[in-house]
Design brief:
The protein is an alpha+beta fold. Helices cover 23% and strands 19% of the residues. The radius of gyration is 15 Å and the shape is globular.
Length: 129
């Protein structure tokens, strides 16, 4: 956010197909939001303002693939970047920031517990594990 306060989740709707790599795809570091949350629990939530490039270990990055109309949901702390586009297709995605009511008052807790405000997601993910 402009104030420096983080959001919580990002929702992206693919407006064009990105069914192959190197189409300007979003790159993500799977599980990095949990690593970041652990780091922030150890160093305090305000340490977020000092992280320019994370020095904590993360998994190898992966390109996100999808078709027009697909929905991508990622945590704000998920390591991410955009890759180059060597295809002839213009990459188009629209992004929204999602947060629960009263998030602004408790964002410091949210960056230490990535699913704090999203109990249904926590329950769903617990079932998968």
């Amino acid at each position: 956010m402009p104030s420096g306060r983080p959001g919580t989740f990002t929702a992206g709707i693919f407006l064009t197909d990105q069914t192959a790599t190197d189409m300007g795809n979003l790159w993500v570091w799977p599980g990095s939001h949990y690593v970041a949350a652990s780091y922030l629990r150890q160093h305090g939530s305000d340490a977020l303002f000092d992280i320019e490039h994370p020095t904590y270990p993360m998994a190898s990055p992966e390109q996100v693939l999808g078709r027009a109309g697909d929905l991508f949901i990622g945590h704000y702390l998920l390591g991410h970047n955009m890759g180059g586009n060597t295809s002839e297709v213009v990459r188009r995605v629209v992004y929204f920031r999602l947060h629960a009511e009263d998030h602004r008052a408790r964002w410091r807790d949210c960056v230490q517990d990535p699913l704090l405000e999203f109990e249904p997601a926590r329950i769903s993910l617990d079932r998968v594990r």
